[in-house]
């Protein structure tokens, strides 16, 4: 399965319903700290719109809810891996993306034969407080050499203008969050991303 080069991440099905119809083909639903029924509702809504528009939906963290909803793909951070039932995830045939920041985390991720590896934050990010400082483009090139053909995703402080540099450094896919959701015209920003990555 080939992943689209543009990978927006949204914190609700509202964003997915609003923007996926513009032509997004790969999207992550990343909800933090919500009740199980709310999470389930957002996953079902997101799944419906993604199926209708031929978009791959990746559910962050909530692997059991993703299995229950019949989703195809999950993304797990390193902390999520501590609690994830990998046997259940494999039995459900879920595809798996994993966040990495250093070589120990990368080794842990690669041992699970992930469908992609994400490295970040490439640039400083305002999205969440992280113990990891800016990774930089050179580290993308290092990761590219270490993971072989496994798809590599650049995340953190990414923008339309920064995307070409990430691709040149070895990323297969660039993820964007606040560059879209904090933009005064998210629709036009998505169109700019699509033009830059297609």
List its traits.
8 strands, 198 residues, alpha/beta, TIM Barrel, 10 helices, globular
Percent of residues in beta strands: 15-25%
Query: Which structural class do you get from the secondary structure elements?
Result: alpha/beta
User: At the first level of CATH, what is the class?
Assistant: Alpha Beta
Q: Any idea how many domains? A: 1
Predict the CATH topology.
Answer: TIM Barrel
What's the CATH architecture name?
A: Alpha-Beta Barrel
Number of helices: 10
Strand tally: 8
- Straight-line distance between termini: 17 Å
Please describe what this structure looks like.
The structure is a single chain. The chain is α/β, with parallel strands linked by helices and 198 residues long. It has one domain (6-197): Aldolase class I (TIM Barrel, Alpha-Beta Barrel), CATH 3.20.20.70. The chain has helices at residues 13-19, 36-52, 63-68, 78-83, 86-91, 103-110, 137-147, 163-169, 178-181, 186-197, and strands at 6-10, 26-29, 56-60, 73-76, 95-100, 116-119, 152-154, 173-176. Strands 1-2-3-4-5-6-7-8 form an eight-stranded parallel β-barrel, surrounded by six helices. Strand 1, helix 1 and strand 2 form a beta-alpha-beta unit. Helix 1 (13-19) runs parallel beside helix 2 (36-52). The two termini are 17 Å apart. The model has no long low-confidence stretch (mean pLDDT 95).
């Amino acid at each position: 399965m080939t992943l689209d080069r543009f990978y927006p991440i949204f914190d609700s099905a509202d964003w997915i319903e609003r923007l996926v119809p513009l032509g997004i083909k790969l999207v992550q639903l990343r909800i933090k700290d919500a009740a199980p029924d709310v999470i389930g509702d957002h996953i079902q809504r997101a799944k419906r719109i993604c199926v209708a528009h031929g978009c791959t939906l990746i559910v962050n963290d909530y692997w059991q809810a993703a299995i229950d909803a019949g989703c195809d793909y999950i993304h797990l951070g390193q902390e999520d891996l501590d609690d994830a039932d990998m046997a259940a995830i494999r039995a459900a045939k879920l595809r798996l993306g994993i966040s990495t920041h250093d070589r120990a985390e990368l080794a842990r991720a690669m041992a699970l034969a992930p469908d992609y590896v994400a490295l970040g934050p490439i640039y400083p990010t305002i999205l969440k407080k992280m113990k990891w400082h800016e990774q930089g483009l050179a580290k993308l090139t290092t990761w590219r050499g270490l993971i072989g053909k496994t798809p590599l995703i650049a995340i953190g402080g990414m923008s339309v203008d920064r995307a070409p540099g990430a691709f040149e450094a070895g990323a297969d896919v660039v993820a964007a969050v606040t560059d879209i959701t904090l933009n005064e015209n998210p629709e036009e920003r998505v169109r700019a991303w699509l033009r830059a990555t297609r």
